[in-house]
Design brief:
The structure holds two protein chains of two kinds.
Chain A lengths: L1 E5 L5 H25 L4 H9 L1 H4 L4 H28 L6 H18 L8 H27 L3 H21 L35 H19 L1 H11 L1 H6 L4 H25 L13 H11 L4 H24 L4 H18 L1 H4 E5 L6
Antiparallel strand pairs in A: 1-2
Chain B lengths: L6 H27 L7 H19 L2 H25 L4 H19 L25 H4 L5 H19 L1 H11 L1 H6 L4 H27 L11 H11 L4 H24 L5 H5 L1 H15 L3 H4 L14
Helix pairs in contact in B: 1-6, 1-9, 1-10, 1-11, 2-3, 2-4, 2-9, 2-10, 3-4, 3-9, 6-7, 6-11, 10-11, 10-13, 11-13
Classes of the chains: A mainly alpha, B mainly alpha.
Amino acid sequence: MIRLEKRKEPSTLWSYATPFLAVALTVLAGGLMFAALGTDPVAAIRTIFYDPLFDPQYAAYSRPQLLVKAAPLILIATGLALGFRAGVWNIGAEGQYIIGALTGAGVGLALYPAETRLIFPLMVVAGALGGWAWAMIPAILKTRFNTNEILVSLLLVYVAENLLASMAVGRLRNPEGGGFPGSRNLSQWDAAANPELVAGTGLHWGVIAAIAAVIYAYILLNRHLMGFNIRLTGQAPRAARFAGVSPNRIVVFCLGLSGALAGLAGLFEVTGPAGQISIDFNVGYGFTAIIVAFLGRLHPLGIVLAGLLMALTYIGGELASFMLNIPAAAIQAFQGMLLFFLLAVDMLTNFRIRLGREAPA
Amino acid sequence: MFGTISPTLLVAALMVAATPILLAALGELVVEKAGVLNLGVEGMMIIGAICGFAVAVETGSPVAGFAGGALGGAALSLVFGVLTQFLLSNQVATGLALTLFGLGLSSLLGQGYVGIKPPATGRLDFGPLSDLPFAGRVVFGHDWVVYLSLALTVGIWWFLRRSRAGLTLRAVGESHDAAHALGLRVRATRLAAIAFGGACAGLGGAYLSLVRVPQWTEGMTSGVGWIALAIVVFASWRPGGVLLGAYLFGGVTVLQLNLQAAGVAIPVEYLSMSPYLITIAVLVVISARGTRRSLGAPADLGKQFHATR
């Protein structure tokens, strides 16, 4: 008979090993899924994980994409992870990402066609504020009325998507676009563009912001009282309250910061890789970032690795759908599976597996 | 402006629009009464939608389709069950994983089913009763799933209030340690509740793809599962409240669709976001009245159970 015995302290070894174990299991299960779809599993896994980085034909295009795709994931996941540590569940980052892009692009387009490099920083601030404000809705409802932040933040994603559609065909539509939905192209307007800073690397301002956010989160968590309070609130809410930590401040701080970072991610995306506001501007980074945060074990440095890996599955998935006719949706299922395995093997961190009956005390 | 909207058809359409939400919310109610918070309703619904659609198209029988949808939802929910009950994973995170995975898997399964029409689910024949004015269409003019969902509401009320098994389920949800000490089987009860919730969500999803829309499109649940979760809170964990909540939101959805069709001056996007905004508003009003506990949430909702002896 198999029993689980609670460890007195979570195992350090397993807390590092479980993400790798989960990735290995996902690759195995994903291989089975691809085989079931009638594709050679070895070729599929190779196309997803190896070819984007090392294939002589595709690597030149794919490698820069790694940073382009990882930057928004890392930026959003870093903010989410802070909240998850404190038991504040912001799962509406997708909405905050959209609103950040809308407010940032809106400020920029209001100044069109001025040519001053001051516009871009202004847009960055507007994007962060937009995401922050959107996240403040669940935060204030939570602190004032005790409304569940999970449901409110998630429901606001659908509101944001409708707002995006309305803006893309209405207020922000390109007046010279021949009536087609979508805004002016921001990446082609020098004052507002978020260009590739070093040719051939994919490095843009969003990547720099992501690195800054990771460093900030690391220092916050390990060297700052606020970070300590966040961890305390997550692990022992009652103890935190006795220690004088205001739960409301934690909720407002975590939701606000994660909203602002998601807004930034949206702004850098709309001014750079995406280029314009369009109806299908958002591609689910806000949801995938939840997986990234958990895969990185809610640790800033872990999130960097997890973000890069998840970006690789995006790029590899595109390559696989192009090369092997694997449906694009298979990658989404693959990413969801990763989170399942991660949560499943996480048990090893907190419990010991024992065989046989409990020894008499 | 409202002249073009017939009240009879409005109420009839409201019932159809409310049925998927009602089914999913009833399932989640039972799950939460057992002390488990499954945030994967959206994922189970969409899996139910594609499984139900695929089975109905392949067999040509809508009844088989609904069974397939329920089975698909239950199967996915058991993944959640095993993870949270045996591997003791975090319920919030696992529920989210269920939704993300369900959305991905459903679009994968649905590859070949885009643009197909499913076999029609007919209205039940009540003979001359169906010709009555108003009541004929509203009371006697629906397909069997609408009546099933109403029967399920009464059934669940009876089960939770009057039956011994329902008492066990509530005990497990209120205090798993006390229930365990009494010799009740906490994990088995919860697994059964989770599977039932999954089947209900799957049935609701199948109703979306087979009757409500009726078609398969990727991501077609578009937040209905989350609204169902909100309705359980709105209902203060009572079946009657779930019915009221679901019909209220069915009403909002149908009304905004009708206003869209009637060409009101409000842009379509703002009408489409109204059900979500109203859900949030209702959640705020409800939660402002008191804490979860005082509203009737089970005491051990979302807590991990690990029997040490």
